[in-house]
Design a protein that fits this description.
It is a single chain. The chain is of the alpha+beta class. The chain folds into two domains: about 20-65; about 70-145, PH-domain like. The protein contains three helices and seven strands, in the order E-H-H-E-E-E-E-E-E-H. Helix 1 (about 15-40) packs antiparallel against helix 2 (about 45-65). The longest helix has 24 residues, at about 15-40.
Length: about 150
C-alpha cells in the first residue's frame, strides 16, 4: 500500500492562496495610497499627478505578476504558469514532484533530465497547504504516469 494520498479529482488548480491574497491587498493599498498622495499634494500639476497614478499602476502590475503562478492538472497533463512563462507538460514527462525542506517552491523533475520550478505550490505563508498540494500533485503524477491518460468517454 502506498503512503501517498488518493489523487484529487481532475481538473485541479494549485495556487498559493494566502500569498495571492496578500499581493492583491497590497496592490489595492499601494494604488489607493499613491493616488491619495497625488490628489492631496496641492503643489502638483496635472502631469505630476498623472505620473503618481502611472507609478502606482506600474507597482500594481508587478504585484499582479507575482500573484500569477499556478499549476493546473487535467486529464492530459499539467500546465505550469510561473511569473512570465507558461509550460504545458504531458503526464509522462513528469518523473518526480519534489518539495524538499527549504525549497521555495515545488520542482518537477522531467524526463529530459531537466527540472522545472512550479511556483504555484510554495510553502512561504502556508507551509502545510503547500506540502498537501505537493503530495496531491505527486499522487496525480504517479498515478497518471503509470496508467497513462484515461480515454475520454462519450
Amino acid at each position: 500500500m502506498s503512503d501517498l494520498p488518493e489523487p484529487p479529482a481532475l481538473p485541479v488548480t494549485f495556487r498559493p492562496g494566502r500569498t495571492r491574497a496578500v499581493l492583491y491587498s497590497a496592490a489595492v493599498a499601494c494604488f489607493a495610497a499613491i493616488t491619495a498622495v497625488a490628489v492631496l499634494l496641492e503643489r502638483l500639476g496635472p502631469g505630476e499627478r498623472l505620473s503618481f497614478v502611472l507609478t502606482a499602476l506600474l507597482l500594481d502590475a508587478v504585484l499582479l505578476v507575482l500573484a500569477r503562478p499556478k499549476v493546473v492538472a487535467d486529464e492530459s497533463g499539467v500546465t505550469v504558469v510561473n511569473l512570465t512563462s507558461r509550460r504545458r507538460l504531458e503526464w509522462a514527462e513528469i518523473v518526480r514532484v519534489n518539495l524538499r525542506p527549504g525549497d521555495p517552491w515545488v520542482f518537477l523533475d522531467l524526463s529530459d533530465g531537466t527540472s522545472l520550478p512550479a511556483l504555484g505550490i510554495q510553502p512561504g505563508i502556508a507551509k502545510q497547504r503547500a506540502i498537501a498540494d505537493a503530495r496531491a500533485l505527486r499522487a496525480l503524477a504517479d498515478a497518471r504516469s503509470a496508467a497513462g491518460p484515461e480515454p475520454h468517454q462519450g
